[in-house]
């Protein structure tokens, strides 16, 4: 078999790579020579290396809605081809996996990777950690919210789980908003008090924590990193030690009356 060798016109190095790999090598050398990467080259023409559908939903994008519909039809066709026995096996397997894992607050369900434990309290983001640190250092008593509130979205009944409870006040730490957020707020029970902490309200808390512990405060404050906690979740769920995932009680938290926040 003939040994095909190519020479790169940029670095003048011979290579025995296959043609496709060699073309990628040449492109990389050319970009490196002019001090650019693939990502920077794409950004110059108004593109980025992020997914095109990031942040979009079926309600806000016709393209996402059309894709969801196509995927749904494909799944239905695949499901219909299976025998009744295979369908029942799949149902039974899903049921055994999801038993005890749905409903209520689920630790680690947030989108942030800056998660971990702080003094027995699980935090799903750096903002939640900053808020928790501030509460402890100000002597305020709080707990994770274990209640859920129903609301309607797209003709479906969904559940909303606030982040924390301070006395009779439900606290939501909101760094972003999605299509469901306005429905959660508008349908929250009128006889309950919901305090929303967004950028403006969190700014003094973040400044306080960053000044005391540094901008990357979560790196030194978390007593357990998110990857370790997720592994623990998987082991606990598999062994069924606690019976319900995410139900390990926080340490040293009590529900007592407390003065207003901030």
Can you put this structure into words, describing what you see?
With 262 residues, the protein is α+β, with helices and mostly antiparallel strands. The chain folds into 3 domains: 39 residues, no CATH class; 31 residues; 124 residues, 3-Layer(aba) Sandwich (Endonuclease, Chain A). Helix content is 42%, strand content 14%. The protein has a 4-stranded mixed β-sheet. Strand 8 and strand 9 form a beta hairpin. Helix 5 packs across helix 7.
List the helices and strands and how they pair.
Blueprint: E1 6-7, E2 14-15, H1 19-33, H2 38-44, H3 62-81, H4 84-98, E3 116-118, E4 121-123, H5 126-137, E5 143-144, E6 149-153, E7 156-160, E8 164-166, E9 169-173, H6 181-186, E10 193-197, H7 199-213, H8 217-221, E11 224-225, H9 226-239
Parallel strand pairs: 9-10
Antiparallel strand pairs: 1-2, 3-4, 3-11, 5-8, 6-7, 8-9
Helix pairs in contact: 5-7
